[in-house]
Every structure is written in structure tokens, then in C-alpha cells.
Design brief:
The structure holds 3 protein chains of 3 kinds. By secondary structure, chain A is mainly alpha-helical. Chain A has 3 helices and no strands. In chain A, helix 1 packs antiparallel against helix 2 and helix 2 runs antiparallel to helix 3. Chain B is about 80% helix and about 0% strand. Chain B has a two-stranded antiparallel ribbon. In chain B, strand 1 and strand 2 form a beta hairpin. In chain B, helix 15 packs antiparallel against helix 17. Chain C has a single domain, classed as Up-down Bundle (Methane Monooxygenase Hydroxylase, Chain G, domain 1). Chain C is about 65% helix and about 0% strand. The longest helix of chain C is centred in the last third of the chain and has 28 residues. Chain C is flat and about 60 Å long. In chain C, about 0% of the residues are buried. The chains are: A mainly alpha, B mainly alpha, C mainly alpha.
């Protein structure tokens, strides 16, 4: 039997992987995958809690988050395509013309 | 059902008109800047009228869509502010887009979509609704930041904004999921009841902390501000103006609604966190702005600092605190849009007009423009008789009355520091001569000029006669149940 | 127990159908092989290069993006379809509005040339 605690541990691991990955990886596509990890970690939580509480809100919200994640991925990929057309790179460090 | 749709009518209308603008832009291509711009402004104005009618037809205390959506005075104030911001930005963009030869259709539609998102954020009393509104706003602004496809800087801004924005949304969402798990609800009123009746467990507190991180990110508070300077510098200038006021005000609306409203029972555990963030934001924003030679970057740090001031009002809390934040958002919006309007006017050769040196001798060549910029700089610095002074006065008064004297001391000290970099531009304009090689001149941009005029007049009027505006803000936040 | 008989029948048919098809194909097909027949594009398109030697064009992403966006919208269609009777006319109208918005997006992508291989 999988309890809510098991799911929580998994989601926490995914969330941490996502946040750390976003902070240390410089490849834009990897960063995009990390965004998905974070959002889906939250989704797992919503669904696990929804089951535990016997309340549908969490599952419905998860559906919305899936859509938002898709839109986010689409925009991220759009930015990458535009970037590649201009600079021929997907590396974030090579798109640094400003100070920061 | 009918009442629900009436309450949502402004958003429905703006979304529909935004799609119409998108398709019209497709049909007409690049040529019809004037037509599409006029269409967008009319659409925003029509939405404003609809908002007024919808507000009259609904009960401000009522909840719609099974308690997910409200149209209270707080929401109406913010929605009117967002519509005003969007209309000003559309007008600011008109000449700029034309000059740089970019398609207006998608641009205008995205500004309108972002506005729909912001309006939803102001009205949502359910964390799910607020989150969806937030994402609609954020996704539209990511694209807008990268809209100038031929500029590397614009791409860089979009990429950085996207990465950090997506991370903050993710962290915020994870916080929401933990709060949902701990309390079993996403509804703010129920949340407040549950949190007040039982001692919250550690997971709820972690959730609140993550939520606070996400929100501080969205208002660009220290230590979550690193994206701001690069994004503001790289984005097309009208979009920088938009990002610095619209999404920021929307983030504050959400911040107030969620923290002062739903999470009020936990105030003891988040108020110090926000207070410290406010102090750090004011200190770092102002100190970092001192060394900037690029005016857009300087204004970016200045906007970080201003978020810090507004956070002081949030920490103060209560009706007075909320009032002062609403009033400050109005003041900050007109001032900042005016200031960015000047940066647009001065952009004569590509990205020029952005360095402080470009302002040298401006007073001699363009006395009226220099006077306008002086006005906006004084307002940002908080010098009477401008609106900025009144805004700060009420914020700080609210904080002192709530007992946060130390925060106000920091705020006043930092306002004094900020005068250095605001007056540096004034100094350049009035006392320095340009090096003469290729002096920056104002480009012909009638609509940008008109927006600046309007903002300048507003800054003076609010500064000299703040009473009606304050009364409006007070009436708006008067019944601060927020839930 | 009788309630499970249709399920059992379904399983039997599901297994039998491909098996029968395979057997028929095996009986009917000619069974001649030559190098051209074994190429990746059986229809006879000459291949221009080995797949693993070159990276894919970034344009694939554009198509993928459009696919992802429109694909995920079915997430909302599914619960509506399950609850179709209960949601009645209101749900139907709501879904029409939703699909209408998608059509606006589709028309935009199409007219803007996003579906074209440039």
C-alpha cells in the first residue's frame, strides 16, 4: 500500500532535483526539463493529498497545472528556437551580453 | 449563474477582444499600427466601462463561481489600475513599434492577455484561480520580453525571465500543494478558518514559506531580485515600463489578498520574513542603483527599491496598510510609466539614450522634456509636491502606526540615498553640457509624448490634491475583508 | 459471473483479430526481399543521409510545440466527455467556447505559417 508519505518523499525528491537542476545547469533544454520536474512534483502532491483527503479539488487543479505546464514548455521551446536562429546555441552562458 | 457571468464579464470581454485584435493583426500585417493600436485602446476602455457596469450590477460582498471569484472594491481598484496601465503602455508602444518595424497584432494581444491574467489575480479568492491568473500574466510577459526578435538583448531578457519566472512559479505551486495538503482547501476564506482553529503543522509552515518565496520573486524583492536588471534592460522599453508596474501591482494584489487575507492567522510566522525582505530590498535596490550608468538598469534597481517600500505597507497590514499600498501602486504606476516614456523618447540610435551621459545638456535643447523628467525623478525620490511624496508619506505613516518604526527608519534613510541617483540625471540634464559628438535628441513620437504629459499632470495633481485619490483608495480597501 | 462474459469475449476477440490478420498476411504476401525493399522508406524515397550522423533541425521543435499545446487540451475534453450527460447543455456550450478559443489559436498558427516547413 502506497501511503501519502511515500508520495511526498518522491515529490520532494523531484522538487529538489528540479530546483537544483535549474540552478546549476546551463543548457536551456535541461532547464526546461527541470521546470517540468518541479511542476509535476507539485502535481503529485496535489493528487496524493486529494486521495488522502477524499477531496477532488486537488485532482482538478492538477489538470489545470498540466495545461499550464504545457503552455510553459511551449513558450520555453519558442524562446529556444528564436535563440538558436539568432545565436546558434542553447547554452545560457553564451547568451550573456549584459552585465548580470 | 447569470450573476457569475456578470461578475466575470470584464475579463471575458477583454479576452474576446484580445483574440479579435490577434486575428485582425494577422489579417492586416505590419501596415496597420494605428488601427490596431486604436482598437486595443478602445477595447481596454470598453472593458473599463464594462467593469464599472458589472461593479454596479453585483454585490461587492458576494462570491461567484462557488466562492472562487469576487468583485469587491479591492478587486475593482486593481482592475481599473491594470486597465489604465495597459492603455498607457499600448499608447507608449505605438510609435516605438512602428519605428522598430515589429508587428503590432501579437504584441497588443499579449498585453491584453496579460491584463486579463492580472485582473483574474485581483479577483481570485481561491489559490487555484489566483495561480491560473498569475500564469496567464507571466506567460504573456515572457513572450513580450523577447518580442524584439532581431535584438540579442531582448532574447537574453526573455530567456532569463523565463527561467527564473518558471522556477518561481514552480516553487509557489509546490508551496500551494503543501498548504492544500495541510488544510485540505484552496479557498482563502476556508483556509483562514482552518488555520485559525487548529495549530498548523510543519508542512503548512513550509508551504507558507515557499509561497512567500514565490511571491517575493514576483514582486522582485531581495534576495529574489537577480533577474530584474537584466530583464528590464533587455526587454523592449515599453514592455519594461509595463513589467515594472502592471505585473508588479498584480503581484501585490495577490500578495495582499493571500497573506493579509487567507494567511492572516499565521501572521506571526510570516511577518518577520516579509519585514526582513522589505528592509533588504530597500537597502540593496537603492545601493545597487547608485552605481548604474544605464538608465534602464538604474530604473530597474529603483523599481526593486519601490517594491521594498510597498512591502512596508504590507507588513503594516490592517486597512491603513492596505490602503497605503493601493495608493502607492497608483502613484508608482503613473510615475514609472512617465519615466520610461522618456527613455523611449531618447532612444535615437538603437539602444542609445540609455546611458546617463545621454541626458547631458537636455535642459538646454529640450526644456519642456527635461522639466518632465525632473518631475518624475522627484516623484520617484519622494520629494514634495509630487505624488511620490504623498505615496511614501501614507505608507510610512501606516507602518509607524502599526509599530514598525525600525522599518520606516530604514525606508527614510534609503529614500535619502535614492535621491543621489535620481538627482544625478537631473544634474546631467541641467548642469552638464553634452560632449557634442552626437548629442541624443528626442525622436518624434507624438503618442509617447501625450502619455508622458498625462502622467506628468497626474503626478502633480496627485501630489497637490491627494485627498480624492486617497479617499478612493480608502473606500476601495475600506471593507478589507479581502475574502 | 455472467457480467464478465462480455469482457472475456472482448479479450478473446482482441487477441484473435491481430493473430488472424497476421496469418492471412503471411499466406497472401509474396515474400520477395531485395536491398531496396529493406531501406527505411519502403515507398522508394531515396534517403539523403544516415539519421544518427546529423542533429535534427530546430524546426522540429516548432511542430512539437504546436503538438504539445493542442494535445494537452484534450485533458479538458476527457472529463467533459465522461460527464457529458450530467453537464447537459451548459457543459456543451462551455466546451464549444473552449474549442472556439483553440480554433482561434489554430487559425493563428496556420495563417502565420507555423505549420509550413520553411
Amino acid at each position: 500500500m502506497i501511503s501519502t508519505a511515500h508520495v511526498l518523499v518522491l515529490s520532494l525528491a523531484l522538487f529538489t532535483l528540479g530546483v537544483v537542476g535549474m540552478a546549476v545547469r546551463r543548457n536551456f533544454i535541461t532547464v526546461l526539463m527541470c521546470v517540468e520536474l518541479i511542476l509535476n512534483a507539485a502535481n503529485l502532491n496535489f493528487i496524493a493529498f486529494s486521495r488522502q483527503l477524499g477531496d477532488l479539488t486537488g485532482q482538478v487543479f492538477a489538470v489545470f497545472v498540466i495545461t499550464i505546464a504545457a503552455a510553459e514548455a511551449a513558450i520555453g521551446l519558442g524562446i529556444i528556437v528564436a535563440l538558436v536562429r539568432l545565436k546558434q546555441t542553447v547554452n545560457l552562458d553564451q547568451v550573456n551580453v549584459m552585465e548580470g | 449563474m447569470r450573476a457569475d457571468l456578470i461578475a466575470l464579464l470584464p475579463e471575458l470581454m477583454l479576452a474576446t477582444l484580445a483574440m479579435a485584435v490577434l486575428l485582425a493583426g494577422l489579417a492586416s500585417g505590419k501596415a496597420r499600427h494605428g488601427l490596431l493600436g486604436a482598437g486595443a485602446v478602445l477595447a481596454l476602455a470598453a472593458t473599463g466601462v464594462t467593469l464599472w457596469l458589472a461593479a454596479g450590477a453585483t454585490d461587492p460582498g458576494a462570491h461567484f463561481f462557488s466562492g472562487m471569484f469576487v468583485l469587491d472594491h479591492f478587486a475593482i481598484f486593481f482592475k481599473a489600475l491594470f486597465l489604465l496601465t495597459a492603455a498607457l503602455v499600448v499608447l507608449l508602444s505605438h510609435d516605438y513599434l512602428k519605428r522598430n518595424d515589429y508587428r503590432p497584432g501579437e504584441y497588443l494581444a499579449l498585453v491584453m492577455f496579460a491584463t486579463v491574467g492580472m485582473m483574474t489575480m485581483a479577483s481570485g479568492v481561491n489559490l487555484a484561480v489566483i495561480y491560473v491568473g498569475l500564469e496567464l500574466m507571466a506567460l504573456s510577459t515572457y513572450i513580450l520580453a523577447g518580442y524584439f526578435r532581431r535584438e540579442v538583448k531582448s532574447h537574453e531578457a526573455a530567456a532569463k525571465y523565463f527561467v527564473l519566472g518558471a522556477m518561481s512559479s514552480g516553487i509557489l505551486l509546490y508551496g500551494l500543494s503543501l498548504i492544500y495538503g495541510a488544510t485540505g482547501t484552496l479557498d482563502l476564506a476556508t483556509l483562514a478558518r482552518v488555520l485559525a482553529s487548529a495549530k498548523p503543522g510543519p508542512s503548512a509552515l513550509v508551504g507558507v514559506a515557499l509561497l512567500a518565496c514565490g511571491f517575493l520573486f514576483k514582486v522582485a524583492a531581495v534576495p529574489f531580485h537577480v533577474w530584474t536588471p537584466d530583464v528590464y534592460e533587455g526587454a523592449p522599453t515599453p514592455i519594461t515600463a509595463f513589467m515594472s508596474v502592471g505585473p508588479k501591482a498584480a503581484a501585490f494584489a495577490m500578495f495582499l489578498r493571500v497573506f493579509i487575507g487567507g494567511l492572516a492567522p499565521l501572521a506571526a510566522s510570516w511577518i518577520w520574513l516579509v519585514g526582513v525582505a522589505a528592509a533588504l530590498t530597500m537597502i540593496w535596490g537603492n545601493v545597487a542603483a547608485l552605481t548604474q550608468d544605464n538608465v534602464k538598469r538604474m530604473l530597474a534597481y529603483s523599481s526593486i527599491a519601490h517594491a521594498g517600500y510597498a512591502l512596508v505597507g504590507l507588513v503594516a497590514g490592517g486597512p491603513a496598510g492596505v490602503n497605503s499600498v493601493l495608493f502607492y501602486m497608483l502613484v508608482y504606476t503613473v510615475t514609472n510609466i512617465g519615466a520610461f516614456g522618456f527613455v523611449i523618447l531618447l532612444e535615437s540610435r538603437g539602444y542609445a539614450g540609455e546611458t546617463v551621459a545621454d541626458y547631458a545638456g537636455l535642459a538646454r535643447r529640450h526644456p519642456a522634456a527635461a522639466f518632465g523628467m525632473l518631475l518624475f525623478m522627484l516623484s520617484l525620490g519622494g520629494i514634495p509636491p509630487t505624488a511620490g511624496f504623498m505615496g511614501k508619506l501614507y505608507l510610512f505613516a501606516a507602518a509607524v502606526n502599526a509599530g514598525y518604526v525600525w522599518l520606516v527608519v530604514v525606508a527614510v534613510l534609503m529614500s535619502a540615498v535614492s535621491l543621489y541617483y535620481y538627482l544625478r540625471i537631473v544634474l546631467q540634464m541641467y548642469l552638464r553640457e553634452g560632449d557634442g559628438a552626437e548629442p541624443a535628441t528626442l525622436v518624434a513620437a507624438p503618442w509617447t509624448e501625450r502619455v508622458i504629459w498625462a502622467c506628468g499632470v497626474a503626478v502633480l495633481v496627485i501630489g497637490l490634491l491627494p485627498a480624492p485619490f486617497l479617499a478612493a483608495a480608502r473606500a476601495m480597501a475600506g471593507a478589507v475583508g479581502l475574502l | 459471473m455472467n457480467a464478465y462474459i462480455p469482457v472475456l469475449l472482448f479479450i478473446v476477440i482482441a487477441i484473435a483479430f491481430p493473430l488472424i490478420t497476421f496469418v492471412f498476411a503471411w499466406i497472401l504476401r509474396a515474400g520477395r526481399y531485395d536491398p531496396i525493399k529493406l531501406e527505411p522508406y519502403e515507398c522508394g524515397n531515396p534517403i539523403t543521409s544516415e539519421a544518427h550522423d546529423y542533429r535534427f533541425s530546430v524546426r522540429y521543435y516548432l511542430i512539437a510545440v504546436l503538438f504539445v499545446v493542442f494535445d494537452v487540451e484534450t485533458v479538458f475534453l476527457f472529463p467533459w466527455a465522461v460527464m457529458f450527460r450530467k453537464l447537459a447543455l451548459f457543459g456543451f456550450v462551455e466546451m464549444l467556447v473552449f474549442i472556439g478559443i483553440l480554433v482561434v489559436g489554430y487559425v493563428y498558427a496556420w495563417r502565420r505559417g507555423a505549420l509550413q516547413w520553411v
